[in-house]
Amino acid sequence: MKPKKSxxxxxxxxxxxxxxxxxPAEASSLLAVAARIRKQPARYRSALSGRFLALLFEKxxxxxxxxxEVAMKSLGGDSLFLDFRGESIxxxxxxxxxxxxxxxxxxxxAARTFRHSTVEQLAASASIPVINALSDRVHPCQALxxxxxxxxxxxxxxxxxxxxxxxxxxxxxxxxxxGSQLGVHVSVATPPSYEPDPEIVSKAQAIGARSGSKIRxxxxxxxxxxxxxxxxxxxxxxxxxxxxxxVRRRKFAAFRVTxxxxxxxxxxxxxxxxxxxxxGEEVEAxxxxxxxxRVLDQAENRxxxxxxxxxxxxxxxxxxxxxxR
Length: 325
Ligand code: CP
Ligand code: NVA
Prior knowledge:
Elements: H1 24-39, E1 52-57, H2 63-74, E2 78-83, H3 95-102, E3 108-112, H4 116-125, E4 130-132, H5 140-154, E5 161-165, H6 170-181, E6 185-189, H7 198-211, E7 215-218, H8 221-225, E8 230-233, H9 245-251, H10 259-262, E9 270-273, H11 285-288, H12 295-314
Parallel strand pairs: 1-2, 1-3, 3-4, 5-6, 5-8, 6-7, 8-9
Helix pairs in contact: 1-5, 1-12, 2-12, 3-4, 5-6, 5-12, 6-7
The chain binds phosphoric acid mono(formamide)ester and norvaline.
Phosphoric acid mono(formamide)ester binds near residues 61, 62, 63 and 134.
């Protein structure tokens, strides 16, 4: 059996640098495609035959690297890991040159960078789709998997309440953007001066005004979590900010997801974390390991969401080489 021929979503050749590079309708359709591929993986076994994805990573990764590599291989394509840890992508030659060269050999780039502007530069210069595999600003692939996880558990997204407790970081930004697009109410509680970027918050509020999603930024975790369907946290110190970790441990102490805090959410609430997790810091081990924790489902859904993304961006694409243009 063949996969549904050439997806008609119109995503071929597009980038996913920021969550809003997908429209709300496209994000929603992508989740439906992810669920379909998850249900019938065999139908997509050669969907991306002959396609190559280059992974350019300036930072460590377990989930993102493995899920992109497995996604490409299980769709019949392949991936190449280019290790930029310990150097930056633009160090040896300009970022634009890296992008333009890669466009002659491979069909897409997934980049994990320190500076968000590096992913933007790749996207501006590459003739092929560029996927943000986490930058300091956003983590859009994570948010897609998280939305899929919420939809799996509650059977819908519209009207759910997601409470994010901790650092107003890249993951929080993507949850604000993706959540507001899909009608999820998002409350973010951070210590003062660790709030999400006001520009992202305003963007999410504007999107939410259309989708019906309410966006709140607070400094009180208990208020944020009250009545939530899902409580989400992430590390207090993101990759690249390690020298702040001592200070952050002190400032974030009241923002740990404890059993007591989690009990403020709905009785059927789930716990989410993008992982890696630090037990005893941002989350108590008992919450992370409880039967309400869906963190491994989130990790699994990275694979399904990214398979859908890759298929939608790449199927029907002509080879990148000049001779085939
Ligand atoms: N959640 C996530 O992106 O994990 P990795 O850093 O292991 O890729
Ligand atoms: N906010 C974390 C997410 C890791 C997946 C970081 O950037 O390190």
